[in-house]
């Protein structure tokens, strides 16, 4: 594909599948050209004409005669009021002052200190007043008609824990009559298909991403050696987003063209593909990513509560400075769109997109300063229990004693899996307890001889497994043998 060549870390067969559809995807990309017959008859469109835009400029989705239409945007109502544009013109000196606001920690989180902020922080905080002025009344329902059945693509980047709640949503959307394609890493192909949902592979290695996040406790590189690794992964993922939205099914050849996109924030490029295709976008996530004054960004450490809202802008900006070149190359080369700046339309952020957070409002209520386009919708559980058939030796082991303890890291890699395994086994021995060690991606359970009070587990649905256990241990319990013994005793 010349300069469009993708960077992959999957198996050869997976790459061949993707390459086999590359010419078809490139043909479909021609429909994105502004001079193409499909688009030339339509009025000029951009991101601000769809639900992929800041809340204050978002279109309200309407349905009439089975066609998707959009109401007048708040940006059109407010005219040329754009106080955030001043931040596109930051001088190099001001950018250095902004960098001085933050300190990237060894674990990849960001410390934001307002005492060093000066006028730059004040300019950033002006975005909040602008945001509040444009949010008011921007998403009032103008139609109660049911939406037509759509072709929906879900773009999900991350580990199995990231994919699973989206799979639950996909199944529910299918029940409503929509055709749903879940696009994620090839590692999860069997998992997605086993739930009866169409699958399309995204590039990028989820194990490498999990290792990166384990080393950095988030998305920001803690050292220069991490930068090139993460950029390579993200470029591969971003380049594969467009085919995921428009390419035919890789196995059946059935055509597909997304009429709506659902994505998690780490599928960078989602808003840009939505802009190019002219389709609505909705964000779902399990961590707060929308600015609020009530708590800081999960990747930020903020000593002053006044800096909570600002921490979201800072983290978004740092991420944008890291991938902005990749995004603009993607826009120009793949999407045939003009390059953009971060602050001019908040393209690097999800803070103005319709967003649903998947946690219980009883655990963390929706902040008062989140507008009507953001909601806390509760957990999205996928029921896998009904189809699971456990191995007979596992069933007998569970029956032959008291309920065991469960130990597992899921998709989290470990720096020293052997030491962690030894801590667990010795603690169980010292306390006379039984335990299930879920090997996961951390490579736990490498034992020359497995004692009868330990069962090594490869994979098992949690909704079936956890009721069989007396207690569950997360990674924090594995730090020291003594502390684990105290808990087990």
Automatic annotation (TrEMBL):
GO molecular function: sterol 3-beta-glucosyltransferase activity
Any one GO BP annotation for this protein: carbohydrate metabolic process
Annotated transmembrane regions: 306-327
CDD domains listed in its UniProt record: GT1_Gtf-like
Keywords tagged on the record: Membrane, Transferase, Transmembrane, Transmembrane helix
Annotated Gene3D superfamilies: Glycogen Phosphorylase B
SUPFAM superfamilies: UDP-Glycosyltransferase/glycogen phosphorylase
Domain of life: Eukaryota
Protein name per UniProt: Sterol 3-beta-glucosyltransferase UGT80B1-like isoform X3
Source species of the chain: Abrus precatorius
Gene that this polypeptide is encoded by: LOC113866516
């Amino acid at each position: 594909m010349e300069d469009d060549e993708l960077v992959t870390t999957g198996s050869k067969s997976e790459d061949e599948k993707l390459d086999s559809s590359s010419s078809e995807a490139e043909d479909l990309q021609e429909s994105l050209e502004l001079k193409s017959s499909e688009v030339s008859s339509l009025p000029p469109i951009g991101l601000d004409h769809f639900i992929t835009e800041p809340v204050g400029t978002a279109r309200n989705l309407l349905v009439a005669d089975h066609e998707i239409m959009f109401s007048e945007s708040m940006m059109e109502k407010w005219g040329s009021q754009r106080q955030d544009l001043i931040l596109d013109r930051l001088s190099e000196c001001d950018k250095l002052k902004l960098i001085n606001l933050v300190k990237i920690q060894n674990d990849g989180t960001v410390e934001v200190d307002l005492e060093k902020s000066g006028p730059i922080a004040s300019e950033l905080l002006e975005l909040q007043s602008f945001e509040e002025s444009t949010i008011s009344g921007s998403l009032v329902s103008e139609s109660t008609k049911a939406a037509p059945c759509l072709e929906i693509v879900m773009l999900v980047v991350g580990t199995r824990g990231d994919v699973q709640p989206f799979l639950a949503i996909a199944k529910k959307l299918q029940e409503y009559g929509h055709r749903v394609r879940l696009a994620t890493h090839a590692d999860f192909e069997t998992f997605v298909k086993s739930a009866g949902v169409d699958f399309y592979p995204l590039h990028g290695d989820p194990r490498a991403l999990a290792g990166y996040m384990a080393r950095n406790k988030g998305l920001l590189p803690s050292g220069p050696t991490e930068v090139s690794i993460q950029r390579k992964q993200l470029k591969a993922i971003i380049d594969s987003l467009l085919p995921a939205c428009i390419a035919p099914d890789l196995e059946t050849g059935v055509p597909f063209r997304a009429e709506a996109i659902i994505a998690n924030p780490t599928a960078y490029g989602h808003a840009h593909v939505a802009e190019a295709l002219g389709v609505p976008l909705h964000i779902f996530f399990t961590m707060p990513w929308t600015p609020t004054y009530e708590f800081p960004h999960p990747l930020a450490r903020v000593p002053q509560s006044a800096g909570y809202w600002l921490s979201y802008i800072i983290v978004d900006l740092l991420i944008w400075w890291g991938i902005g070149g990749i995004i603009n190359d993607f826009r120009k080369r793949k999407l045939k769109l003009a390059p953009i700046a971060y602050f001019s339309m908040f393209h690097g952020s999800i803070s103005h997109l319709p967003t649903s957070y998947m946690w219980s409002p009883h655990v963390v209520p929706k902040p008062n300063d989140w507008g009507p386009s953001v909601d806390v919708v509760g957990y999205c559980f996928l029921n896998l229990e009904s189809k699971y058939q456990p191995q007979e030796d596992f069933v007998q082991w569970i029956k032959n004693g008291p309920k065991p303890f469960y130990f597992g890291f899921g998709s989290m890699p470990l720096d020293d899996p052997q030491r962690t395994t030894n801590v667990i086994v010795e603690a169980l021995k010292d306390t006379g307890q039984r335990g299930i060690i879920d090997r996961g991606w951390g490579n736990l359970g490498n034992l020359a001889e497995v004692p009868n009070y330990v069962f090594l587990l490869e994979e098992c649905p949690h909704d079936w497994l956890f009721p069989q256990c007396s207690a569950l241990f997360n990674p924090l319990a594995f730090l020291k043998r003594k502390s684990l013994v105290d808990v087990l005793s």
